[in-house]
Amino acid sequence: MQLQISGDMALVFRLRSFAFKLLRQGALLFVVLFPIFSFAGYAGGPYVVWVNLDRSSDGKEVDRIIVDFLANKSVECDGQWKMGDSLLYMKRRPPSIDDGLVRDVFLGKKKTKMKQLDAALRSYRDAEFPHHDGLDGIIVYSRQPEMKIMSFTVRTRRVESVAVASQGNIPMKEDVEEAFCALLPPITRAS
Q1: CATH number at residue 103
Q2: Buried/exposed 7-36: b ≥16 CB within 10 Å, e otherwise
Q3: pTM: predicted TM-score of the whole model, two decimal places
Q4: Is 68 in the same domain as 36?
Q5: Tens of pLDDT, residues 25-64
Q6: Which H or E element spans position 164?
Q7: What whole-number distance in Å separates Cα of residue 113 and Cα of residue 101?
């Protein structure tokens, strides 16, 4: 017994086969392109500037503590610091954020300079990371008038600080690490 397929039935089978091919190709295209679009609006980070106003050997030791701390793969600062996703500008920072501006904001508490710092952080664009706009904040170490780590978060217009050592003492590694995590600005660029 031989089954014969009419011309209309053959056309239906070909159309159905063509539709399934299109559907498979569309699904493949979706699977390939979806990850690209799923990051639209995603803000990694935080992206932070580190400034050390202490140029002494003790200040260099604080820099070394921060570098070693962040190089450790297990650092996460209660989920705020994401290895490979967060950025710390330590040596290379925005040119508009110089030591004078930082001193005026953190030590002089000048409100007009705070607005200037906020604008400099929000408007910063890095040629090496063109996918992000702006920075989330700045963390500063100073030994004047006492040894403390301070931070400023974009859009907050206030400085927070944590003392890490009394005058004349060298800051302990654990105190510097805890203060850094406590003062780490949240991601503000997505808002």
Answers
A1: 3.40.50
A2: eeeeeeeeeeeeeeeeeeeeeeeeeeeeee
A3: 0.75
A4: no
A5: 655 555 545 444 444 444 577 999 999 999 999 899 999 9
A6: strand 159-165
A7: 7
